[in-house]
Specification:
Elements (H helix, E strand, L loop, with lengths): L4 E17 L2 E15 L2 E7 L12 H19 L4 H11 L3 H19 L3 H5 L5 E3 L2 E3 L5 H11 L7 E4 L6 H11 L4 E4 L9 H4 L10 E2 L7 H10 L4 E3 L6 H10 L4 E4 L1 H4 L2 H14 L2 E4 L6 H10 L14 H4 L5 E2 L8 E3 L7 E2 L1 H6 L1 E8 L2
Parallel strand pairs: 5-6, 6-7, 7-8, 8-9, 9-10, 10-11
Antiparallel strand pairs: 1-2, 1-15, 2-3, 4-13, 12-14
Helix pairs in contact: 1-2, 1-3, 2-3, 9-11
The structure holds magnesium ion.
Magnesium ion (MG) binds next to loops.
Length: 367
Amino acid sequence: MKIEKIVLTHVRIPLRDPFRISSGSVSEKDSIIVAMHSEGFIGYGEASPMSGSFYSDDTPDSVWAQLVSVIGPAILAARPDTLEDVDDLLNDFGGSGFARAGAETAAWDLDSRISGRPLHSMLGGMRPDVASGLAVGIYQSVEILLRRIGEYLCEGYKRIKIKIEKGWDAEPLTAIRKHFGDIPLMVDANCAYDRKDIEYLRRLDEFGLMMIEQPLKKDDLEGHAQLQSLLNTPVCLDESAEDISQVRNAITLGSCRIVNIKIQRVGGFGNAKAIHDLCYGSGLGVWAGTMPELGIGGIHALLLSTLPGFTYPTDVESSERWFLDDIVVPRLKVCNGTFKVSDYSSYDIDTTVLQKYKVKETALTLN
Ligand SMILES: [Mg+2]
């Protein structure tokens, strides 16, 4: 590939509903779209940090600055021939996984379009369908939570995931079990508890959960190992599984049985695939989480989920479940709780929507 131009577009699309988790709330989705041009083809990537930095320290502004000032110019100047060249270059910079993911996935997408080889095949994926799970935030009351879940479940999602925090855990779970029976159910605490809560968290075993995602602090792999040894329910790591070395440590310590692999957190397809391979070979389950991203990131997570170790439903959902509009054609649309991979193996950008929700745009060119 000869990368001639990189166009960066910051877009902001309103969420249908404010999204609240244990560490904060957002009402708009910010993403930076990376369009990599070569030989008449355009490959797309998405850098999708949360505004307000409630998931990590990265913000749309900090990721924009890295892409515009450092990563974009460096990629153009280095004239990489292969994905390995791009990977080496990005490794030299370190920095945000979000910025890295935007550039790296654009390079994979571009390589796929130039070679005519579907992205999921390039990744080594085989699965023709991907199961989708419903994820909902924290609401003002259990009644609202149950109503929202009921509305969304019409699309046939394969499991329910609720966000929990101290004071919002056993009560909503009891209500969900009462109203929705033995539907596959999991929780995500986004680091809301700490070691002194371990005894309390053991109570969650009674709900027969598919997994408990990131109950303790990000850096507390030992605490997670202690908790996992006392729980029947699998512990799943998200924020803690920052890179492959952390996942390796977690496996050694016995901190989890499942890993949520987010392309944004780990910095692209290559790192995500390496973590998948490690977990798959070590007998851990994996699934693809989301921020959630807009359609490009969503489709990329969906295609990643075709790899054999992704045995749990993904967090990728229908575009309209989260956003007022989306930037991809076709829009993501769950059918009976699943996505058909062939529907998304080639996709386009809706440039009208991209321009409508554009915050700013800049084009970097080869000098
Ligand atoms: Mg999570």
